[in-house]
Write the C-alpha cells for this entry.
Amino acid sequence: MGITFRKETFRDDFTFKNSPEHIKRFPFPFHEDAYMYAVNIEPHVVGPKGSVLENLIDVDEHYVAEMQDRALVLAEDPLRCQSLPHMTLAGWDLLELLMEQQASGYPEHFTLTRDGDRWRWINRPLGIDDTFTFGDTSTLPYGPMEYITRQSQGDFCILDQRDGNLWMDAGMVTTQADWSLDFDIGMNFFEWHAPVPLAHEKGIFVRALKFLTNIQQGKPARRLNWTMTINPRLDTSPENYHKWGPDRTTVTPENVGDKVHLRVELQSFWRLPRSNGIVFPIRCYLIKMDELVTQPKWARRLHRVIRDLPDELATYKGLTRYRPTLVEWLSKLDDGSPTSPGFGPD
Amino acid sequence: MAAKSIISRPVYGTLSPQPGKQHLFIADAEGALAIAEMAERAPPGFFDDAEIVFIPGPDGKHIAALEALKPAQFHQAPSFASLLPRLRQTLANAHMGVRLYLSGTEGLIGQAMQVALETGIDHTSIQTEHRGSLARRMQCVHCKGITENVTTQPATCAHCGLLLLVRDHYSRRIAAFQGVCINAEDRSEIPPMEEIFR
C-alpha cells in the first residue's frame, strides 16, 4: 500500500492540511516545557514504524504538492538553486544518496536500476522515467543536484569541507526559514550563521562544527529546529519577505487555530563518499494550531514554551507581533497539569 | 576603523610588507595613506616589484605621494568600474607569489577582493586596511540591486525603493552588506532614518 498524495497548495488559497495519521507522526520538537539552544545532535538512525524516522529520507503525503511548489519558486527565481563549479561531484553523490534512500524506503513509488554507469530512475508520483549515465551531466535535463532535489522534499545544502571548516558551496533552497542561499553561498560555517543571536556566545557553533567535520560515511546525524509561520507557506524566503511579511499582522483570536503553524525542520547531516562533502537536508514539517492541539500534551507544552521564550529568540524567529494572541489562545488549552517527558503525544 | 559586530562582517588590519615576488596594491582616496605608512616599514627596494593602482577621491589628493614610492608601475583609474577589466587581466596573469594589498573604503576593498576570489586567490592571504568613509555597499535581498555609498540606517533601495535595514551580514562573493525590508510586515511603520555609516 502506497502513500496517498494530497492535492494542496502552499500559497494563494493555502489548502495544505495534515491527515489525522500525519498529525500523530508530526515531529514535535520540544522534549520539555521550555526551549533554549543546545547542540541537540544525535545519530540519524531509523525510528519507530509510522514516525517520520521510519525512513532516513522521509517521503510523505505532501510530496507531490511540495515538488509542484518548488517548481513554481524556481521558475520565478532560479537563484534558489546554485552550485559553485567545484561542487558537481558532490551533486552526483547526493543524487545517488537520494535515489537509493527513496527507492529502498518507498519501492512502490520509486525504482532505481543500475547497469554499471547506466542508471534508470523511475519516479511514479511525478511521472518520471529517465535513463542516464552516472557522472555525465549531459545525460540529465539539469545538473545532478538540481535534478534530484526537484524530486526530494526539503531544502538541501551541500557543504565542502576544507581548512577545518565547512563551506556552503551548493544548495537547493526554496522552503527556507528566512535565509538567502544566494547571499550566503560561498560562506563558511561561522559566517552563514553570523546573524543567529546568543548561540555564538554559548559556543554552540564551535562545538557543532567540530561534530560535523567528524561525521563519517554511513553514520548520518540529525537535529530538530523550529520556528513559526503564518499560513502554510513553504517559501518564507527573505527575497519574498515583503510579500509574506504582512501575513504576520493578520493573526486574530478567531483565526489563530487555522493561520498559525509550527514549522519544524528535521535537519540531517551525511558524509558524501566521493567528494568528502557533507549534505545537509533541511526537511520542513508544517502543522496548524488546530491540528497540533488535537494532542493535549502538545497544546499544554507549546503554551509554556512560547510564553516563556526569551524575547531575543522570539524576535529572531519573528513571533513578536502575534505572540500575545497565540499565548492567550493556547493558555485556554493548558490546565496546568504536568506533561510527560519526551516528544511524543500521550 | 569600523567596529567589530558579527562574524560575517569583514575585519580589516594594517598593511604590512609580505614576502613575495610581486606586490599589487589597489587603493582609493585615503587608502593611499595606508600604503605610504607601510612604505616606511618596508625593506629597501620593496617597491621595485610593486604595482600600485589608485582611484583618487573627489579631492584628487595623494597621487604624488604614491608616485614618490617609485613603484615598478603606477596606474591611476577614474573609478572601480573602469579599472575592472585591467584588474581581471592582471590577476588572471599573475604568478604564484603575487601578494595583494587593498586599502581605502570598504566598497573598494570588497570589490577588489571579489575579483581576487574569482581568480582563485584565498581571501585570508590578502592584506587589507580600511581608511576613510564607512559608507556601505548594499545588496537589496528583494530585487538584488546594489546601492553604493549607503550612509543611513535604514536606507532606501536605489532600485526597487523598499526601505531596507542595512545588516552587518556581509557576502564577500557579492561584495556587499545585506539589505532587508525593515517594514515588510506593516509598510505604514516608517522608522527614522539616521546617518550612521560615515
About this structure: The beta strands of chain A are 42-43, 81-83, 110-115, 118-123, 128-133, 155-162, 165-172, 221-230, 260-271, 278-288. The radius of gyration of chain A is 20 Å. Chain A touches chain B at residues 79, 180, 182-187, 190-195, 200, 238-242, 245-246, 248-249, 321 (CB under 8 Å). Residues 20-331 of chain A form one domain.
